[in-house]
Write a structure and sequence with these properties.
It contains 14 helices and two strands; from the N terminus they run H-H-H-H-H-H-H-H-H-H-H-H-H-E-E-H. It has a two-stranded antiparallel sheet. It starts with a helix and ends in a 10-residue tail after the last helix.
């Protein structure tokens, strides 16, 4: 249960620090914006929190803390991020030497529409020059995408969306619906009745979107491509 002292904003900085470290995900989610409003003291707590979390895989709470710091103009914060997280909160691993820095930047600043376009671009880069030229993928190119690169792209979306967006989220929903595409499309907001959601204006480019709404892999063309993506070995238990 949420501590009323925390929600009222009357808790001192030490109480907020302890709640951020030891609280539930719900409480941590409430603490971060409060700390963001406390100026340098709050920023110091967020930096301390991420510093202690450096040896652990980033989750979406880390992502929220990082986003506050990333969008801060405070010199000590910029120095901290440059020193401790020069590439960002998510390690940008790639088997094909793809540069995912631009995607991390767009997601950290919550520019989801631009991040979606960048995701398609990076998937095409993974497939090679012909895919980059045509700007879409064959399902066989999706099947051959490196595991580590798909995991990097997915982790970027997960961490910077509060766990709401990403291929693994879409796969989880798809599997929960027995791989039924007609139930899947409306569940993630890509179709309403018999009407497909039109790109770009009818899609929702913020966190009010349905879970799994982004990224828009349907731009990759066809159910076969989407099925290849959601069935990729990158999401097997041993690799997640």
């Amino acid at each position: 249960m949420t501590d009323p002292m925390i929600l009222s904003g009357t808790a001192d900085i030490d109480s907020l620090r302890q709640s951020l470290i030891a609280g539930s995900l719900q409480i941590q989610q409430q603490i971060i914006p409060q700390l963001a409003k406390l100026g340098n003291e709050g920023l110091d707590v967020l930096m301390e929190f991420l510093q202690k979390r450096r040896d652990h895989p980033a989750n979406w709470i880390d992502g929220k803390a990082y986003q506050v710091l990333y969008n801060s103009d405070a010199p000590q914060v910029k120095e901290f991020l440059l020193s401790c997280f020069p590439e960002g909160i998510v390690p940008l691993k790639s088997d094909r030497q793809i540069n995912y820095n631009p995607l991390q930047h767009l997601l950290a600043t919550q520019e989801f529409q631009a991040a979606d376009r960048m995701t398609i671009q990076k998937l095409c880069e993974l497939a090679g020059p012909m895919a980059v030229q045509r700007k879409w993928l064959y399902f066989t190119e999706v099947e051959n995408a490196p595991i580590i690169d798909l995991q990097t792209i997915n982790n970027l979306w997960l961490v910077h969306s509060g766990g709401k967006f990403g291929f693994s989220v879409q796969r989880e929903i798809w599997l929960s619906l027995g791989k039924n595409w007609e139930n899947f499309w409306p569940k993630i907001g890509w179709k309403s009745g018999n009407t497909w959601t039109r790109y770009p204006h009818q899609f929702t480019w913020d966190l009010s979107a349905p879970r799994g709404h982004l990224p828009l892999s349907n731009q990759l063309r066809g159910v076969r491509v989407m099925a290849s993506l959601l069935s990729h070995p990158a999401w097997s238990q041993s690799n997640t």
